Amino acid sequence: MTREEALDSIKANVENGNLIKHMLATEAIMRAIARHLNEDEEVWGLTGLIHDIDMELTGGDMKEHSKLGADLARELGASEAMAHAILCHNEAHGIPMETKLDKALFYADPLTGLIIAAALVRPDKNLAGLEAKSVKKRFKEKGFAAGANRQQIAMCSEIGFELDEFIELGLEAMKEIAEDIGL
Ligand SMILES: [Fe+2]
């Protein structure tokens, strides 16, 4: 699967612009994690990019979400390792995470939401001026972007990251694609 093929399939299956931005942000963070861990940046990035491709098709049915996504990814040529990461990023299936790729996707997914929310409450509503220390402060505010599961983000220690370092890496990665995600 090339990045272009993944994007074409996303455009064909996803209408919600914010969901597409979420997937682009997840891709950026996955690429940064892969570089940091000396893993295959393309594989990790594409897994992040495509991970929620079935969100609209499954209409919020969490029993189906990510099963269909894994199938669509396989049809596009994704490896079993990629399909597995997509499958188990939805806890509803109860499939345990096995690889670092599985885990990285699970931890990066909610970090995008926290960072996007932290950018959107700024007067300029953009990422350029957002500092890691404010995201770390927001992390501790339970009521802020409550959908961004803090416990899940903090599990980054399982792939060798300090929480602060993980937040910094995520923020820097998203700043690189700020224009693409309208921030
Ligand atoms: Fe996601």
Explain what you see.
- The chain has nine helices and no strands.
- It has 183 residues and is mainly alpha-helical.
- The radius of gyration is 15 Å and the shape is globular.
- 60% of the residues lie in helices and 0% in strands.
- It has helices spanning 3-13, 17-37, 41-50, 67-75, 80-88, 100-120, 132-140, 150-154, 163-176.
- The mean pLDDT is 97.
- The longest helix has 21 residues, at 17-37.
- It starts with a helix and ends in a 7-residue tail after the last helix.
- The relative contact order is 0.14.
- Helix 1 (3-13) runs parallel beside helix 3 (41-50) and helix 2 crosses helix 9.
- It binds fe (ii) ion.
- Fe (ii) ion (FE2) binds at residues 22, 26, 51-52, 109.
Shape: globular
SSE sequence, one letter per element = HHHHHHHHH
Average pLDDT confidence is 97
Bound molecules: fe (ii) ion
DSSP E strands, number? 0
